[in-house]
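Summary of Year 1 activities. Much of the first year was spent building the evaluation harness for sequence design. The harness presents a backbone, in tokenized form, and records the residue chosen at every position. We chose the following record to illustrate the format because it has been used consistently in internal testing since the harness was completed.
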């Protein structure tokens, strides 16, 4: 009788294990579909040491975020990787990281800020738009990064245009995660100088920033030395006959 119970218990355990192995995963265990989109300045593109290439980009902030999201989701993410000559390696692959080194809060929309350009009003410029028809026609980093999204939109395309297009393409299929870094080039240009470069830099000559090492800065001293006391200090008309003026505290 006891042996029969043991056989029955063993059979139930094996069947339960088999059902557990062949049953579909529980609904709550399904990973979400995510789309990671990045736009902004060099922090987004992945610039290091003022250089853009695949090695730097794969070790930058946005790639670290993508690596983390990929562990908990089905992630759609694509980098516009550059070679060591800073040329796009796979120009016909649609990027979801559309950040461009040197961008500011105006150029993300293709706009040149009027004060940097020295003109009365801000204006849209092709320098901040992707407008090349083929990779051979790339003229700047905006062409290098945003291509071929401008072909999909059939118009010169800004960073914001590219981001909106990517989000519209994923609607209903993936949950978007958008990373936006901007402002470094706005603040540094304002702090360091003026003009059309981002950031512009007006260096201060070393001689004006600090005196020559080992020498005192020229100019009158703030401290006036008291003359050495002698036994024949002149007397003030109001001073005590016994106390010379130069000997008083």
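For this record, the design step produced the sequence shown next.
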């Amino acid at each position: 009788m006891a042996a029969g119970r043991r056989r029955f218990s063993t059979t139930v355990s094996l069947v339960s294990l088999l059902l557990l192995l062949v049953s579909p995963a529980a609904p709550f265990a399904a990973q979400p579909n995510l789309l990671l989109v990045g736009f902004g300045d060099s922090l987004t593109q992945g610039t290091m040491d003022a250089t853009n290439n695949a090695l730097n980009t794969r070790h930058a902030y946005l790639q670290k975020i993508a690596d983390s999201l990929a562990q908990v989701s089905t992630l759609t993410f694509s980098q516009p990787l550059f070679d060591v000559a800073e040329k796009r390696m796979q120009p016909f692959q649609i990027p979801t990281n559309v950040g461009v080194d040197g961008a500011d809060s105006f150029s993300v929309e293709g706009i040149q800020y009027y004060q940097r350009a020295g003109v009365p009003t801000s204006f849209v410029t092709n320098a901040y738009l992707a407008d090349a028809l083929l990779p051979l026609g790339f003229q700047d980093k905006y062409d290098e990064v945003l291509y071929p999204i401008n072909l999909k939109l059939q118009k010169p395309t800004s960073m914001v245009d590219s981001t909106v297009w990517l989000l519209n393409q994923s609607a209903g299929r993936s949950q978007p995660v958008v990373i936006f870094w901007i402002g470094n080039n706005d603040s540094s240009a304002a702090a360091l100088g003026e003009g059309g470069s981002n950031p512009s830099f007006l260096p201060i000559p070393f001689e004006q920033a600090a005196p020559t090492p080992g020498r005192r800065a020229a100019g009158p001293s703030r401290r006036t030395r008291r003359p050495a006391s002698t036994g024949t200090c002149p007397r003030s008309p109001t001073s005590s006959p016994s106390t010379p003026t130069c000997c008083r505290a």
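Confidence is low (pLDDT under 50) at residues 19-27, 195-201, 243-249. Quantitative recovery figures across the full test set are reported in Table 2.
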